[in-house]
């Protein structure tokens, strides 16, 4: 008994972290993602150290088997496959994470405003959310990805730059992700706004904006984190699909999706070119899903007494 | 009930109208227009020809005016011609709608038939080895890029083993008897249906498992067990029906989405369905076809939503349709 009393009480964050560490798959996933993140961020330095240029094509050295110079061999244009995979990983992670964060922000604002304000505004916002959910998203995203930025007044140089194509795909994938978050946050807000601490804040004269963003949203943070983690995986899948179709990340920039575009023809000659990018998408998406699942269990107090 | 259906019909009509306008605008923003294709196809065309052609197709008018003209025609049931097929749009889309219905329907039925029992099986032994394996399999299914899965299946079964065709819909000369023709059709269906089934299976199984676990925690289940109802009875008589309501909603929603969601599978296996038609139409600047195809896909999704709500009210008598209208 004295033992229990002597133990310093752990902070809620610490408790969640400890519970997460007990989820073996989530820990493995987290490690995998960290390694991937570090490698893909360090890709330019790794390329320098190895003395290879990932963009340099060499048509005399196509489809080379793995060697000391090209660790995983070369692709159909003679580029180093290992470096291309790292570059592709950076794009996938960047698009997935920023897309998910952007959808989390859009979804959280819409959800908390709809839930807190209620009434007609709530009805309009939720109709909008339901409407977006009811749309045939994939073909619609293809239309949006296919539009010519010059026709909406984007200057030519900007429209053709790599950065623009990256921002564009991030916005496109975020357009699908926010609906889940909005519904989730709205549901949480409805229950949180009836709680005593919200009522106390109201009684003290706090403005609605302060209540929504300082009192309600932080309390919905747990489910927000889970939803965002899970949506990173989904958005990476979406990015790879659009890039595979030739509408996402544009070559010569590498992405795991566009590395597979021509892979169907290459399967006979160099199966590794078709297998590795797909396998990396699969593993990364899976890792984010496991991590999200682990976080959900760790954040859900009921999971302790789950059968 | 009638009032509810009427209000839903009005909502659907408004959504479709909004959707058609937005898509019309977006398509107008895509690079090139039909005349550019004609110019590319005929180098002898003069600037005067181009202006005349733009006038013939109405492309010299402002976008809003063009949309209103299109909408007026569409309201009279005239959806225009597909540029790449030189046929009325509906004549092009109808057989594709049927093809998608066959592909998506088969995959959906198979996926549901496997997912529901599998989810219940896993839910009744939570944290066991089989639950763990099923969970792993589900996550694998959710995380696989559909186009990559199709690629692997084609490589394995069509290229390496040569058992099944890699794509298409039927042999040029399928056998003489009707059953030989049917067998031929089925051979072409195996790989696309397998792909689409695997893509959906994981999600459905997890929904069923989650819903069942949630229900098995309820007090009335404890009561039933305490009364001495055998475990099979608890599971099927007391739990299943209650767990089904949320799952049915998800299922109906995703079935509507399949009409366009099969896009990747259809494209990979050259299956002439709606998704592939819409995708191809977007690439080919076939405005009318892309627009009407997207509207039909939206309609399908919305009918799926309606079905989801009706199914919910049917399974769970506490939900009143009239109130939500």
Would you write up a description of this structure?
The complex is a heterodimer of chains A (307) and B (325). Chain A is mostly helical. Chain A has one domain (12-40, 78-306): MetI-like (MetI-like fold). Helices cover 69% and strands 0% of the residues of chain A. Chain A has 14 helices and no strands. In chain A, helix 3 (24-41) crosses helix 5 (81-117), helix 5 runs parallel beside helix 9 and helix 5 (81-117) crosses helix 12. The two termini of chain A are 27 Å apart. By secondary structure, chain B is an all-alpha fold. Chain B contains 14 helices and two strands; from the N terminus they run ααααββαααααααααα. Chain B has helices at residues 2-28, 34-41, 47-57, 63-75, 89-124, 129-143, 146-160, 178-216, 219-227, 231-261, 263-268, 274-283, 287-315, 321-324, and strands at 81-82, 87-88. In chain B, strands 1-2 form a two-stranded antiparallel sheet. In chain B, helix 7 (146-160) runs antiparallel to helix 8 and helix 8 (178-216) packs across helix 10 (231-261). The longest helix of chain B has 39 residues, at 178-216. The model of chain B has no long low-confidence stretch (mean pLDDT 82). The chains are: A mainly alpha (307), B mainly alpha (325). At the A-B interface, helix 6, helix 7, helix 12 and helix 14 of A face helix 1, helix 6, helix 7, helix 10 and helix 11 of B.
What key attributes describe this structure?
heterodimer; A: 307 residues; mainly alpha; MetI-like fold; 0% strand; globular; B: 325 residues; two-stranded antiparallel ribbon; 14 helices; 78% helix
In short:
The complex is a heterodimer of chains A (307) and B (325). Chain A is mainly α.
